[in-house]
Amino acid sequence: MLTNITRRTFFTGIAALAGLGLAGCGSEDAVGSSTGSGSGAAAGDLLAQIRERGEMVFATEGTWSPWTFHNEAGELTGFDIEVARAIAGQLGVEASFAEGEWDGLLAGVDSGRYDTMANGVSVTAEREEKYDFTEQYAYNNIVVITRGDNDEIASLEDLEGKTTANTLASSYATLAESYGATCTGVDDFNATIELLDAGRIDATLNDEVVFNDYMNQHPDANLKVAATAPEPTRIAYPLRREEATQGLREAMNEAIEALRADGTLAQISNDYFGMDITTA
For 224-233, what is each residue's pLDDT tens digit? Predict the structure, then answer.
């Protein structure tokens, strides 16, 4: 298990302001449009390219309610989806979405296949070394979820020697492993719950609002929150760390502040979470 110093470093990275983790069915047109280099003034300027093509491409899972999911009509929606649409609107373009498994989404941002990722991406020290994040647009608590009859886990320290499950590239897996847990890789939250319900793992880590949403839909589920991480995580949009993304980052920050000021962020949060998680 990592030392207390390492743990503090982890939390410093994901919550420095104290105040956030997929088989693809996205549109091929949306995915392909992100790779064009643009022409004239648009070359080397991602914001100009986005405005030239009239759309901004967001990578997302589409399987992580209430952040990003398909409703009963099969329509893609969720907190992250609606915030992304609002931000794109502020930039004067349409939002389009490319769905896939978590492990491939950030890789798609890296390659320029997607403009950014709308999937509750938490800001960690490791990710900040690679990505240029926007201002945070949400905050969240990471919780340890166990079966209701589990009396062996009551804190993060109790994860020592236990088994958990999460997508391996997620901050949840990193946190669990930092406390000595052995993490099994899975595709999404529902898969972790299946393993937990079957008794094949001891716990899983995820967002508090995701757990609350699941329990609202499955009130008889034999699950509980056994522990909560000491600091909330910051949620922001990752952008490639290069000169071409600087104008987009500034424009997105302005859009986030405008949507916070006029109450749009709070309204979307209340619509999907039943609470406002957009301020520290």
Answer: 999 999 889 9
Give the total residue count for the chain: 280
Q: Is 45 helix (H, G, I), strand (E, B) or coil?
A: coil
pLDDT in tens, 235-253: 999 999 999 999 999 999 9
Which H or E element spans position 258? helix 246-261
Separation between Cα atoms, residue 93 and residue 182, nearest integer Å: 44
pTM for the model stands at 0.77
Strand, coil or helix: 259: helix
Q: Are 163 and 201 in contact (CB under 8 A)?
A: yes
> Of 49, 51, 55, 54, which is closest to residue 36 (Cα–Cα)?
49
In sequence order, the 6+-apart residues with CB closer than 8 A to the CB of 50 are 56, 91, 93, 115, 248
6-27 burial, b at 16+ Cβ within 10 Å, e below that, comes to: ebeebbebbbeeeebbbebebe
